[in-house]
Amino acid sequence: MKALLATVISLGLTTVVIGNAYYQKKQFYPSIVYLTNSNPSMAVMYLQAFILVLLVGKLLRKIFFGQLRPAEFEHLIERSWYAITETCLAFTVFRDDFNPKFIALFTLLLFLKAFHWLAEDRVDYVSNDFYY
């Protein structure tokens, strides 16, 4: 329910921001320039992208793993904190190359790590269950 509420709010904010830009500039290209140069507009766009990434992650998790066991979910949360901390430290090293492509690649890296951990936990569960 919280994910649905966050999605609806984010979609509403994005619609308002894009509508406002188009209302002010009346053409596509000036509207895009306005959106990319306005910090509040970019913050809303980044929020929308973050929500979309979370939704895609949930969808892929449901497709590939179905319902997660509580132990798998706990391991995922535990490992995620370390991965996010490592990523933030890496951001300080690569702060000169900080652009949307860089963020997208690090997001992909976090997704791959998370799905690797889930697959590892699932294989451990199946292999331990098989021998008992």
UniProtKB/TrEMBL annotation:
GO terms for cellular component: endomembrane system. It is found in: Membrane. InterPro entries: HRD1_E3_ubiq-ligases, TPR_SYVN1_N. GO terms for biological process: ERAD pathway; proteasome-mediated ubiquitin-dependent protein catabolic process. It comes from the Eukaryota. The keyword Disulfide bond does not apply. This is E3 ubiquitin-protein ligase synoviolin-like. The lineage of its organism: Eukaryota, Metazoa, Ecdysozoa, Arthropoda, Hexapoda.
